[in-house]
Specification:
The structure holds 2 protein chains of 2 kinds.
Chain A lengths: L15 H19 L4 H22 L11 H30 L2 H6 L7 H27 L8 H28 L3 H17 L15 H6 L1 H13 L10 H4 L1 H25 L4
Chain B lengths: L1 E14 L2 E14 L3 E5 L6 H8 L7 E6 L2 E2 L4 H4 L3 E4 L11 H11 L4 H14 L15 H13 L5 E5 L7 H16 L3 E6 L2 H7 L2 E6 L2 E6 L1 H7 L4 E6 L5 H12 L4 E3 L4 E5 L4 H13 L4 E7 L3 H9 L23 E3 L1
Parallel strand pairs in B: 3-8, 3-9, 6-7, 7-8
Antiparallel strand pairs in B: 1-2, 1-4, 4-5, 9-10, 11-13, 11-14, 12-13, 14-15
The structure holds adenosine-5'-triphosphate and magnesium ion.
Chain lengths: 278, 338
């Protein structure tokens, strides 16, 4: 080797926020580079959501009455967006488990990088990636008759709310991904948690049509509050129970959920990461 | 000064089938700038040792330092001074070779341009320049292995941990890697290397430590270890199986020692106390008794013999249809046919 071959080792890791951000961005960039290399992942995520749109808009849609009228498709699409970002956590979980099993996490752990950059990098990547997926779905939504009737700021407020939820669910995915041993179980566990969450909600049917004992659960469910919030912001039909906190403050309630989920799952994920195989 | 020290390392793994004591009071020192070869049968605890020293695992008891840093307390600081290439390649399959190295360089806190330069240097050094812009998924096993080794060198570490670095490499890549290791050593890097190829340890390491069941059971230079288990031996392959017993008696008498018999290969082995003189005696007596032989040789013990004698079981690579001191490491053997 050359005379330039001086150890860089003398440089002590300086830690700090700047490192955390730089390293997080490097990890996020790594995940982004992988997207076009495994296009199936993005394609399936989009197809899955489109299948739900087709299934409900064209097959069951006619049978679901909307109190107060309005287009079922306009009602459905915000729910599909919320469902999509909730299910994104499964992708996160699978990605994390795969990284652990492939030894990439061990490689990262042996490097002098900021300690939780692997996780923050992943969640930042999820934000960018899901923004792309949402954009595609919105175009698809417009094609089947979904419309935004609110103002431009209201539209972006709705998008921002969806993205905060992406961030929160990403941390859920991180914890699941670091906890289970195989990609299959990450998948299984993800679906087991998320199917009830998205079906006992206002995504596909108005909560009124649910059995009485399920209704409060469905109304407080974060997926419902997110759906209701975006429907409200975008002027889409939102036949929510007329009274009650969830009906009156879906935006705040959603933000509350996001804060709560991040506050619980982010520290657990970071702790899990730091204690891995220790 | 010692670059690596370990005292009384204990590590247990809890699994469904019970508790495994992977390390059971392991002590180790590696002098700065030297290469230590860690040998041991499968499951001996080599990988566990490496993972503890590389800050990936926390020992249950005992303590270890690398370049003066405690592997638990100063782990974060230590990481900037070590490089690890684990038993299984740990690179991102969906990135190209260059993207992997640049990323690791950046995470070693190199600037982007430095990281790129370093990546190109390493790609060149590990003969991956042609494949640099291909996704790692399309690499062969040996190419991945080489990329992984390159990753370990990205930060120009003071201490390098290599867990079976040449497993899966073709002979040419293996020799090339040996050169890299020697070069790192010349540059003053301390290297801890685990291997199943005893020849490799013989070739590269200043000192060898044999680990079994989570403890170091022997340590020294290759020569010290070889002489520890005795001097030259005579090996005779008898032509007819029916002559084995008679031949064993003769060889045992001539060598004044225990003669081990392998029925399957018809091979007799005994210590050759008088060197070449013993072999002459054996040939003469066997001839007199009209016992035909296929082969006779005087050989010095190899590290295989050391390994087998010390650990009591065959190294994984030794063909199982043989009696052990099989020529798994042919070139290192000092075989003189009489
Ligand atoms: N994660 C784990 N969970 C349970 N047991 C483990 C784990 N990792 C290692 N072990 C056990 O610890 C012991 C030592 O394993 P280790 O991987 O250190 O051996 P090794 O010397 O590297 O073997 P090899 O030559 O096969 O690579 C083995 O008995 C192994 O089964
Ligand atoms: Mg091992």
């Amino acid at each position: 080797m050359t005379s330039r071959d001086v150890p860089v080792s003398g440089v002590a890791p300086t830690g700090g926020l700047r490192r955390e951000i730089t390293d997080g961005l490097i990890v996020a960039g790594r995940n982004l580079k992988r997207v076009p290399r495994i296009p199936e992942l993005a394609v399936f995520a989009i197809i899955q959501s489109i299948v739900f749109v087709v299934l409900f808009a064209f097959v069951f849609g006619g049978a679901i009455p909307l109190e107060g009228g309005g287009s079922y498709r306009e009602f459905l699409l915000p729910g599909i967006f919320a469902q999509t970002v909730a299910f994104a956590s499964i992708t996160t979980a699978i990605g994390m488990t795969d990284d652990v099993n492939k030894g990439i996490i061990d490689r990262f752990r042996s490097l002098p990088m900021a300690r939780s950059a692997v996780l923050t990098g992943r969640t930042v990547f999820d934000l960018v990636y899901q923004t792309g997926i949402l954009a595609v779905l919105m175009v698809a939504g417009l094609a089947v008759g979904w419309r935004v009737r609110g103002s431009v700021p209201e539209f972006f407020a709705g998008v921002a709310l969806l993205l905060t939820f992406v961030f929160a669910m990403s941390w859920v995915g991180v914890l699941i991904g670091l906890t289970v041993r195989t990609v299959e179980s990450a998948n299984q566990l993800g679906f087991t948690v998320l199917f009830p969450l998205t079906f006992v909600s206002n995504v596909f049917v108005p909560t009124e049509s649910l059995p009485g004992w399920l209704r409060p659960i469905a109304e407080w469910n974060p997926v419902s509050t997110l759906t209701a919030a975006t429907r409200d912001l975008w002027g889409n039909p939102n036949p929510y129970a007329a009274e009650g906190f969830p009906a009156e403050h879906p935006v705040w309630l959603t933000l509350g959920w996001v804060v709560l989920i991040v506050a619980v799952f982010a520290p657990l994920g970071v702790r899990r990461y730091r204690s891995m195989s220790r | 000064m010692d670059a690596i020290t370990a005292e009384g390392l204990v590590k247990t793994y809890k699994s469904k089938s019970g508790v495994v004591r992977a390390l059971d009071g392991l002590d180790l020192t590696v002098a700065e700038g030297t290469v230590l070869g860690l040998l041991g049968p499968n499951g001996a605890g080599k990988t566990t040792t490496v993972r503890i020293l590389a800050t990936l695992l926390r020992p249950d008891a005992g303590r270890a330092t690398v370049v003066g840093c405690d592997v638990v307390r100063d782990a974060q600081h230590l990481r900037s001074m070590i490089g690890l290439s684990g038993q299984y390649a740990a690179v991102d399959e969906n990135l190209t070779g260059r993207e992997n190295l640049v990323m690791f360089g950046r995470l070693y806190q190199l600037s982007t341009s430095e990281a790129r330069r370093r990546a190109d240097e390493l790609l060149e050094q590990f003969s991956l320049a042609d494949a640099a812009n291909r996704v790692v998924k399309t690499y062969s096993g040996g190419m991945r292995r080489r990329l992984d080794l390159g990753s370990a060198l990205t930060g120009r570490p003071k201490v390098l941990f290599l867990d079976e670095p040449t497993t899966g490499l073709d002979p040419r890549s293996r020799l090339a890697l040996w050169d890299v290791i020697r070069e790192r050593e010349r540059e003053g890097t301390t290297i801890l290397l685990t291997t199943q190829y005893l020849e490799e340890a013989d070739e590269l390491a200043h000192a060898i430590a044999v680990v079994d069941a989570g403890k170091i059971i022997a340590r020294g230079t290759a020569d010290e270890l070889k002489s520890q288990i005795g001097g030259e031996r005579i090996e005779v392959v008898v032509h007819a199986r029916t002559d084995l017993a008679r031949a064993a008696e003769i060889v045992g008498r001539d060598c004044e020692g225990d003669c081990t018999v392998n029925e399957h290969t018809r091979r007799l082995t005994a210590p050759a106390r008088n060197g070449a003189q013993s072999i002459v005696q054996v040939v003469r007596d066997l001839d007199e008794a009209a016992i035909a032989i296929d082969d006779i040789a005087l050989r010095r013990p190899t590290l295989d013999d050391v390994f087998l004698t010390l650990t009591g079981h065959a190294a994984e690579l030794a063909p199982s249809d043989d009696d052990g001191p099989a020529p798994a490491t042919q070139p290192a053997q000092d075989r003189r046919s009489a």
